Amino acid sequence: MLDADFFRRWMAAAAASVDREAGRLTELDSAIGDADHGSNLQRGFAAVAAAVDKDAAAAPGAVLTLAGRQLISTVGGASGPLYGTLLRRTGKALGEAAEVDRDQLARAFAEGVAAVGQLGGAQAGDKTMLDALLPAAEALGSSFRGAAEAARAGAEATIPLQARKGRASYLGERSIGHQDPGATSAALLVEALADTARAGGAEA
Ligand code: ADP
Ligand code: MG
């Protein structure tokens, strides 16, 4: 079972990963955006890690809801409200249970991903974070590691796509041939989840 501390460790692992990969995320965003995705998420997840560490929330849902609120209030770019919505809606779907299992998380995460789609109006294949999040949500029903692999494969599969949402869509065909920064960071988030599960012996 996954308790509030597991979710705090996930957010800390995500913050560390975003910090390590910030340069790469910004490089990807400089090719098809405005070169701020790494710094946006670095600032956002640093605030998330600090907030969930300070807060004594006893429920997984409360940890994710707090994390989502932090992202919305600290990240100015498109990705802040989108990731904020992902975590807030996932947290809300988890409710007040003190512990949840992977299946419950998979269902809640799928609701969070659907909310990202509603907010941003993007669909699979539009070359956005959803191209990593949608396959991850589906695979999370089977395993943490499978979700991480699906997210990474989904991010890599954005390379040949033409962007239809967000800043990259302004480039039209020139967005083809570059990996989407948001899909890349989404894969980092899901990989951090799988790493946290493995470290805690929760892999199944
Ligand atoms: P901004 O585009 O405002 O500079 P970021 O650079 O932080 O924000 O984030 C860009 C990423 O956000 C994109 O790579 C894409 O994955 C994601 N994104 C942008 N618009 C949308 C949308 N409408 N739906 C889903 N994801 C989106
Ligand atoms: Mg940007």
Q: Write the CATH fold name.
A: Serine Threonine Protein Phosphatase 5, Tetratricopeptide repeat
Helix share, percent: 55-70%
Rg result: 15 Å
CATH class: Mainly Alpha
Bound ligands = adenosine-5'-diphosphate, magnesium ion
Annotated CATH homologous superfamily: DhaL domain
| Number of individual domains | 1
Do you know the CATH architecture?
Alpha Horseshoe
Question: Uncertain segments of ≥5 residues (pLDDT<50)?
Answer: none
Number of helices: 8
SS-based class = mainly alpha
Strand line-up of the largest beta sheet: 1-2
Question: In angstroms, what separates the terminal alpha carbons?
Answer: 11 Å
Determine the strand fraction and express it as a percent band. Answer: under 5%
Tertiary shape: globular
Give the oligomer, counting copies of the same chain as homo and different chains as hetero. Answer: single chain
**In sequence order, what are the helices and strands, one letter per element?**
EHHHHEHHHH
Number of strands: 2
Largest sheet: number of strands, sense, barrel closure: 2 strands, antiparallel
Q: What is the gist of this entry?
A:
This protein has 204 residues and is mainly α. The protein has helices at 4-32, 37-54, 60-74, 79-94, 102-120, 130-139, 144-156, 181-199; strands at residues 2-3, 99-100.
Topology of this protein?
Blueprint: E1 2-3, H1 4-32, H2 37-54, H3 60-74, H4 79-94, E2 99-100, H5 102-120, H6 130-139, H7 144-156, H8 181-199
Antiparallel strand pairs: 1-2
Helix pairs in contact: 1-2, 1-3, 1-8, 2-3, 3-4, 4-5, 5-6, 6-7, 6-8, 7-8
The structure holds adenosine-5'-diphosphate and magnesium ion (MG).
